[in-house]
Amino acid sequence: MVSAIFIIAAGLGAGFLIGLLREEQKGAAFAVALAALGFMAWVSVSWFIALASGTAQAHDIITAGTQPPFAINLRMGLAEAGLLSVITLTGLASLIYMAPALHALGRRAFAVLVILVMALSGLVLTRDIFNLFVFFELIVIATGGLVLLSDDKRAVAAGFKYLVVSQIVGILLLIGIIFTYHAGGSLNIDDIAAQPMAFTGAGLALFLLLIALIVELKPFPANGWALDIYESAHPGFSALFSAASATAALYAADKLFAAAGPDWLPLATVLGLVSFLGANLLGLAQRNDRRLLGYSSIGQIGLVLVVVGQRDILGDAYLYVAGGILFTHAVAKAGLYWISGLVPGRDLADWAVLRANPVLLFAFAAFIAMLLGLPPFAGFYAKWDLAHALTGADRLPVLGLVLLGALIEAGYLFRWFGFALKRPNPVAFPGFSTTGFAVVLVALAGGWGLGFAWGAGSVHGNLLLAAPLIFALAFLLLEPLPAWAKNILAIAGLLGWVALRAPEYDPLHLVFALVMLAGGAVILLASFTAKGERLGFYPSAMVMYAGLALLIDAQTSFQFFAAWELLTIGSYFLILRGRESEPHALSYILFSLGGAFAILAGFALASGGLQPFALENLAAIAEAGLPVAPWVFVLLALGFLTKTASVGFHIWLPGAHAEAETDVSPMVSGILLKAGLFGLWILLMHMGAQRLWGVDLTYLLVWIGALSAFLGAVLAIFQEDAKRLLAYSSISQMGYALFGLALMNHLGWLLALMFVINHYVYKSMLFLAVGGVYHRTGTKLMYKMGGLITLMPFTFVSVLVGIIAMSGVPPLSGFGGRWVFYNAIMSSEMRLPVVLIFMSGPIAFLYLFRLIHTIFLGQPKDEHRKLREAPFWLLVPQMIFVAFLIGFAVLPGMVLRKVDAYIGGHFGDEALAWSGRTITSQFGYWNPVAIMLVIGAIFVIVLALLLMMNRNAQKVKQFNIVFSAERPFKPQTTHFAWNFFAPYRKALGFLEAPHVTRFWGGITDSLHATADFTRRIYTGNGQTYAAQVLVFVVAVYLVVLGGVS
Amino acid sequence: MHLVAMAAGFALILLGLYGALTHRNILRMIVGFTLANTGVHVVLVSVGYMPGRAAPILDGAVPVGEAAARIIDPVPQALVLTAIVIGLGITALMLAYAYRLFRARGSLDIADYTELKW
Amino acid sequence: MSFEWIQLAYAALTVFIVINYGLIMTAVVQKIGARVGGRYGIPVWQNYIDLVKNIALRSKISHGVMFYLGPVFRLTGGIGLLLFVPTIYGSVMHQNFAFAGDLILALYFVFFGTLGMALGAGESGHPHAAIGVSRGLAQVTAAELPLALAVFAISLQYQTLSITEIVAAQQGGIFNWTLFTNPIATLAAMFALVGTMMRAPFDVVVAPQEIPIGPPTEYHSAYLALMQTNRVLFPVAKTVIYMNLFFGGASNWAEFAVKVFAIYMVSVLVGVVHPRFRVEQSIRFFLKWGLPVGILAILVV
User: Fold this and answer.
1) What is the CATH number of the domain that holds B86?
2) Residue A428, pLDDT score
3) Rounded to an integer, what distance in angstroms lies between the CA atom of residue A31 and that of residue A269?
4) Following DSSP, what letter does each residue of A254-272 receive, concatenated?
5) C4, C18, C119: best mutation site toward chain A, by most A Cβ within 10 Å?
6) Which range marks the domain in which residue B89 is found?
7) What residue numbers bound the domain in which A505 lies?
8) pLDDT top residue among C301 and C32
9) Is A1019 on the interface with B (CB under 8 A)?
10) What residue in A sits closest to B33 (Cα-Cα)?
């Protein structure tokens, strides 16, 4: 094993060696720098591997043959090795990435870069505070040199501002060092005695040291100088500045916090939180990509500072958590800066050029996921453990603020991704530099590698080894295949998985597995319509299905949450594929992540910080009657309600479902919404009814369900867009299901289950049918269509069957749901919410009739006369659904009977008796076969009568109608379709007022306004920045002083 | 004596910072920081000073055996030397920047370089 | 309850009786209305004449399959509704097919004919038909609400959804009728009765003056005959439900005839003295008056 001192030695040596070269020997300078950085990286990585695998021990390197504190010592431990690996590898990659710019600046630039990396390494290794200062100043000088690399003329001013602030930091640091030395008689960090946070002598000295190092971390709001550097410097350097400099400085701060003792940790926590929230908030108002990344960097470093503040409670997990966030951030941020160097424009929307290269686009998405701590990346495991540690130590406000900051960050990062995917490509694009591209790929691989490593180190098992996820990710490699081939694989995979797992599921899980996975396979049949490769579709869809598969399998809260996040991400990318879906996908992911964070907090609260936490243990909490139980319930329920788009959280749904692609709409509507129900089911099954402040929370859920059912239906009838109509109808239908679940009785749950099945079938069918119509007519606006019945008869049949089933009219399967509903409410004490449900039933007729009438009946338009039936593969799943609906209507027992028994096992009752074909409840009875036969027989008889009398009826042409003394001649004036329910609008239009949209819009608008207003503190003037730093230091001092006394 | 030095050092620091923050001319700012740095150096030295002791030079006057009791702390002095060197480096870099800024824009007013903001 | 083939014949008999009763009763109601207005009015067999005339009509056209099926759906809805409910309490012959389902089946089957009819009318391509459907559906959402609540109230009251059991519980004296045991629910239900009988003030759906007869605009010949049959059958079938739920049911055809006529007359009486509501007015009316009564009914039960 090569001693770590050689990292410093190699850096210094290479620096001097390059200095000795002649000016024109730039190639040699590059070679020397490459060799030096390569060597440094090799030493670091080999140490890291050795330490991580336990084949080497952490050790101290003594210099000058003298023991510390009389000489400087360096320490190489696991943390140091990891950080050094990140720093040196980033340095190496940036060297390669920046080589042309460095060449232009001359051979000394290579030396400066090597010195920078050496100094950063030194900062990590050294255990001597004065040495720390020296390395710090070296970093300042090297940074000052490298900022000049940029093409951006403004970088010079930015560098100067940086130097000004560095002067102040240097002064603080030196004074802190000397007084620390004065107090302790040693410059060695290990000799610094833990100090109480009191401001006498040693305490003040320590404060100065810590605050100097914190200022170096660019804390909000004393960080304008750093943002200017991020914005104007060469992106290769910004990558270093963010990934390596910030990482090293953070470790320096960490070393001193460790020495200063637990009293000082709240300082780190509070300043970290302020930075994390402040920087992310201000990021909202950014349009410049590099400055935005700067904000994000500052925020993320703030987050790690928060973690530093929790080192007292994290214990052994400290390195795992801090490292997970820090390393992931370093890799992702470096990667993003490197990509930014490949993008010619500086506006966020200019990233649309990435569409020219799907790999880069994928890298962009992956980096964003890494930054946000989404699975399967390392940050995800870290975030999970952090949340549990925080709740375990009762630091809930910290958790809340961290999650809030993360949500805001998600807001601007996903908005940006939306721009990249959806905005018009602004320039004729010259193509990406190959080396730059390669460097980005290295970062990408690094991020995945970290994810794998952290997964391997997790007690919960490695997500990247979960079969469904591997299967989904494999589609990334299969992307060059044609869509049909991938589709066959996807269908086979889904069906295979269900077949494999089905024997182990109880009936409830089985139904969900069948709906979500087997059902997904049926919908995928429609995807055979797609031509070409259909890039991006299969990885996204299969990640969603993998999430769903894992969700059903989940035994512990971790597995559940990881699956939840996976399906959220997958579905987000899926929804984003729609032509107009950019804003809707964003609002979807924000609501979903907000909900996911609520779920995370809920699980963390439930576990009390102890992991792993089995889902069944929720029951134990409920039984023990712990005071947290209702809060756990509230948080989890909130999370699930965002997914079922219950009223209040519903505004994302109409756009997201309506603008999605034809075969995506049924996936996200028919299948994805059920994930929320599944979660609620797990919650209610284990926790039962909880009371908070004397209110039964299930009663609240019943109301929410009823309101959703009612308002969803009312809003649906006023839609002109067919897919929006269906989307609002989903809100309503999920409301019914929620209502049933929250009734907390046997039949209520059976009702919910029938909705799970029925809604999947008819909503998928209707979305496919409407999608087929859209495919042919090119419009989703119903009033632009009409009379398509003869042109698209199969589609008509599926819509007809779908609306009969959905409206609950006998004899189709929707009626069974209604029958169970009545029996359920009769066994319940809830009365008033029922009124809303009663009202939404008939209202459903309105929008359903409108759907079928305005599209298929009435007057066909001239431009549609030559339309053909929808594509074959769109019809196949629809016909399967039609057959199923009729079968399920006649023989509901084939599905329901087992589930009924299972639910009975839970409630300990037997609500339904299944004798022969009759289903009997305590109150009534229902014989689906008899209903079907009676209705069928009457229908046939009456039809026969009519045929007998009118068999020779003559088919007439379109306008051959009795009219009020007019002769209609064009369909536009004759087809009654637009604003179909005008009287209804007159009577109940006030219900349409977008209060909820205004509420959420108000929140986001005020956040944006605050961000835009607050960021004006960064005036751009170096003196202001310097003054801000001083004011910041004094203010923190005063606040801390106030806190102490 | 050393308290006077320390007070003077802090006074210099404050003076220097005041100057750097109030003068918009870049060169004057640099001078301010130099002043402040000098103050820091004085503080450093004054911290290591112990009344009634000799300079930390081991020769005939101060035998090695008694050194610990008779000389002042040499470490701050060593630190100060390093700090002065580093300060020089930074000052040089700042001056170089000032030169480039002036070349680019013909102005040494820090308020003229605010294109990067918000 | 099990099925025997003879029930088919019994059911056919029920349908036959009710159709004839309906043909005559509606004509009688017309006649009464005319006499009150000082006119002579139609003969009581007028409906038979119309029926025969329509069937015998020689020009027959079709606008398409759904158009053709519309009246079939409509009449199937009427007959089905009648047959899913026991007509005569205690009579083996007139239990019909009540074994197929309970009250909920009847409530939801009401919409079967409406929906099919609306679809058929839609395919005719006539805007007046679509306008009529739009009005009708809009109105019915509010008008049916009090009934739904009343039904919920009385099924809670009797703790059953079986119509036969509800009727059984009302036997043994007039004061056992729901009308007296639960007047609020009955009142709520009567709002719905008046609202859905296609009579003034809630008849804007077929709007006899402004637009030629709403959804059935394009229907003629045997189509119209089927719909006419339904128009006499369906109100009776619906009234039978009211009779069973609120007025003690009927244990023989005479009682049936009297009660159905009396209940039907409620809507007639309201209709002849009130002008027509616009759709939004009737929606507001039901929400303002019918809904509170319905809510009261489910709260006090």
Assistant:
1) 1.10.287.3510
2) 66
3) 43
4) HHHHHHH-GGGHHHHHHHH
5) C119
6) 2-52+68-112
7) 482-535+580-939
8) C32
9) yes
10) A167
State the DSSP string of A23-91. Answer: TT-HHHHHHHHHHHHHHHHHHHHHHHHHHHHTSS--EEEE-TT--TTSS-EEEE-HHHHHHHHHHHHHH
On the question of pLDDT at C209 being above 70, the answer is no
Tokens of A252: 């320096």
Contact between chains at A163 and B21 (C-beta distance less than 8 A): no
Q: What is the pLDDT of residue A988?
A: 86
Compute the average pLDDT of residues C227-244.
93
Q: In the A/C pair of chains, how many CB contacts fall below 8 A? A: 246
Tell me which amino acid residue B31 is: V
Write out residues 231-290 of C within 8 Å (CB-CB) of A. Answer: 278-280, 283-284, 287
Which alpha helices (DSSP H) does A650-789 contain, by range? 653-659, 664-666, 673-687, 697-717, 722-742, 746-777
Contact between chain C and chain B (3 or more Cβ pairs less than 8 Å apart): no
Chain A residues whose beta carbon lies within 8 Å of the beta carbon of residue C108: 808-810, 815, 818
Residue A965 contacts C, CB cutoff 8 Å? no
Tell me how far apart the alpha carbons of residues A221 and A223 are, in angstroms, rounded to a whole number: 6
Chain C touched by A940 (CB under 8 Å): no
Quote ipTM for the complex: 0.95
Cβ under 8 Å to C: A residues 973-1032: 974-977, 980-984, 986-988
Which has the closest alpha carbon to A263: A320, A311, A314? Answer: A311
CA distance A975 to chain C (A): 6
And the tokens for A134?
């020296």
Q: Does A943 touch chain C (CB under 8 A)?
A: yes
The domain spans of chain C are 6-300
Domain membership of residue A732 (yes or no) is yes
What 3-state DSSP class applies to A193? coil
Are B93 and A174 in contact (CB < 8 Å)? no
How many alpha carbons lie under 13 Å from residue A210 in its C-beta half-sphere?
Answer: 33
Domain membership of residue B63 (yes or no) is no
Mutate to test the interface with C, among A801, A845, A934 (most CBs of C within 10 A): A934
Q: What is the pLDDT of residue C54?
A: 92
Distance (Å) from the alpha carbon of C35 to chain A's nearest alpha carbon? 31
Question: Is A193:A184 a contact under the CB 8 Å cutoff?
Answer: yes
Domains identified in chain A, total number: 1
Q: Mean pLDDT across chain A, nearest whole number?
A: 91
Would the CB atoms of C83 and A938 count as touching at under 8 Å?
yes
Q: How far apart are CA A619 and CA A1023, in angstroms?
A: 60
**Hey, which residues 295-354 in chain A have their CB within 8 Å of chain B?**
none
What pairing do the DSSP bridges indicate for beta strands C61-62 and A954-955? parallel
How many separate domains does chain B show?
1
Interface contact C141-A846, CB threshold 8 A: yes
CA atoms within 13 A on the CB side of A209: 31
Residue ranges, chain A, pLDDT below 70: 198-199, 426-430, 964-965, 1044-1045
**Residue B116 to residue A156, Cβ atoms within 8 A:** no
> Residue A191 has what pLDDT?
84
DSSP letters, A922-974, are SS-EE-HHHHHHHHHHHHHHHHHHHHHHHTTPEE--TT----SS-----HHHH
For chain A, say whether C213 makes contact (Cβ under 8 Å).
no
pLDDT at C238: 93
Q: Is the pLDDT of residue C212 over 70?
A: no
- Model confidence band, residue C43 (pLDDT cutoffs 50, 70, 90): very high
Alpha-helix runs per DSSP H in A126-154: 129-147
Give the gap in angstroms from C-alpha C173 to the nearest C-alpha of chain A.
24
Report the C-alpha gap between A767 and A866 in whole angstroms: 23
CA–CA gap between residue A214 and residue A208 (Å, rounded)? 10
Using CB atoms, pick whichever of C127, C159, C221 lies closest to residue A923: C159
